[in-house]
Specification:
Elements (H helix, E strand, L loop, with lengths): L8 H19 L6 H36 L8 H24 L1 H11 L14 H11 L1 H5 L3 H13 L22 H8 L16 H6 L22 H18 L3 H8 L9 H10 L12 H21 L6 H22 L5 H19 L3 H16 L1 H13 L2
Helix pairs in contact: 2-7, 2-13, 2-14, 3-4, 3-5, 3-7, 4-10, 10-11, 10-12, 13-14, 14-15, 15-16
């Protein structure tokens, strides 16, 4: 059976997150916070999901460049593998540095830095937007002459390593601190302390930061997150808030040159008051105010079901048709949005539940177009609309309590 074994990444990462959680609990250190950890993993789930539809495109992009524009024809040897890992990491360094220095790139990369906690769940905060931008930077590799199979294999390794640098439980690692990016180095990178801003851009090797003058040793205790915290667990807002801020700031600029300068200017020069303006416009302040925490159980149930669905969707990717893949992906994406909205205790989460229900109804009827199925699903639909207010009230009471 032709299975997609990349699906193993889901239980693999979850296992290490669970181990870190248990070790932290035994050490008496509170490095996990429910809302933030769920929000972090939601971002990672979306990336894994969308990657299922885009990974092949990245591969063929590298293959096309290699076939048509390669300067050299590099073969796989020990020396060329070493050269590739160094080249990959050097390009990453500059991609990462641009991601912090250019507003447009920061709009895609900021999602990774939004979390106010620093643990393995923060290591999963990678978006598909980042993957696209990184691919454009790494496009130089096939042009140099590295073949697509070598590049994609290296990118898997290169993507795995930094996950393990997102932890507070591992101290300094002796001589490795001089060569590799360690958890200590990466804690500095994720900190919002003034002394730590825009430091330690390396992904695997810290040597680039030392060569190009961006190295900072861990000294004072780090405060994680943004210099102006986002204060939102919304899946959509965490992804798009900075793009919205850029758009509104650009609208206030006169002349196309000034607008372009804004998008390619520095985040350090960006007016922080713009966030307050767009938050007042797009973020409702009407949250449910409750003391109960029972909604956490419901979020965990949703989250667990979504992970199981994602795992089997990835594992049997080559044995499911495109329609089922798309419907399953939509259900997962709606669930991701729903989880974030529930964590923020929004009243409109019930509408997302209806959307998810109708997606399941539509998919069911697509595969079982029997009259009995049609009648049952019609009754479900009509009942949901007729008793909408009652169902919404009972739903909110069940999740949030009275």
């Amino acid at each position: 059976m032709n299975l997609n074994y990349m699906a193993i990444a889901v239980p693999f990462f979850l296992t290490f997150i669970a181990i870190e959680y248990l070790v932290a609990k035994k050490m008496g250190r509170k490095v996990f916070h429910f809302n933030s950890s769920i929000a972090n993993m939601n971002v990672g789930i979306a990336e894994r999901l969308i990657d299922m539809f885009t990974a092949a495109a990245f591969y063929f992009f590298y293959e096309y460049l290699h076939q048509h524009y390669a300067i050299f024809d590099i073969k796989a040897t020990l020396l060329t593998w070493i050269a590739l890992i160094l080249a990959t990491d050097l390009i990453w360094y500059w991609y990462h540095r641009f991601g912090h220095k250019v507003n447009l790139f920061w709009a895609f990369h900021v999602v990774h830095h939004t979390s106010e906690e620093f643990n393995y769940t923060a290591g999963t905060r990678i978006t598909i937007f980042q993957a696209v931008v990184r691919t454009l930077f790494w496009a130089v590799l096939p042009v140099i002459g590295f073949p697509a199979p070598m590049i994609t294999t290296m990118l898997i390794v290169h993507g795995l390593y930094p996950f393990f640098t997102h932890t507070q439980l591992i101290g300094k690692l002796g001589i490795l601190e001089y060569i590799l990016v360690t958890p200590s180095h990466h804690r500095v990178h994720h900190a919002s302390n003034e002394a730590y801003l825009d430091k330690n851009f390396g992904d695997m090797f810290i040597i680039w930061d030392k060569i190009f003058g961006t190295f900072q040793e861990e000294e004072e205790e780090a405060k994680y997150g943004l210099t102006k915290q986002l204060d939102s667990y919304s899946f959509l807002w965490q992804h798009f808030h900075y793009l919205v801020e850029l758009w509104y700031a650009a609208k206030a600029k006169t002349g196309i040159i000034n607008k372009v300068k804004l998008f390619f200017g520095s985040p350090a020069d960006f007016d922080p008051e713009v966030r307050a303006i767009v938050e007042r416009k797009f973020l409702s302040k009407h949250k449910v105010r409750v003391s109960t925490q029972k909604f956490r159980t419901y979020v965990l149930v949703q989250f667990s079901a979504m992970l199981i669905m994602l795992f089997f969707l990835l594992l049997f990717e080559h044995h499911t048709d495109l329609f089922l893949q798309l419907m399953a992906a939509l259900v997962i994406l709606v669930t991701l949005i729903n989880c974030g909205a529930i964590l923020e205790q929004r009243r409109w989460v019930f509408f997302l539940e209806l959307v998810r229900g109708f997606l399941i109804v539509f998919t069911t009827f697509y595969y079982f177009p029997h009259p009995t199925t049609f009648v049952l699903l019609s009754l479900f639909t009509v009942g949901s609309l007729v008793y909408f207010s009652t169902l919404q009230r009972q739903y909110l009471n069940t999740i949030y309590g009275r």
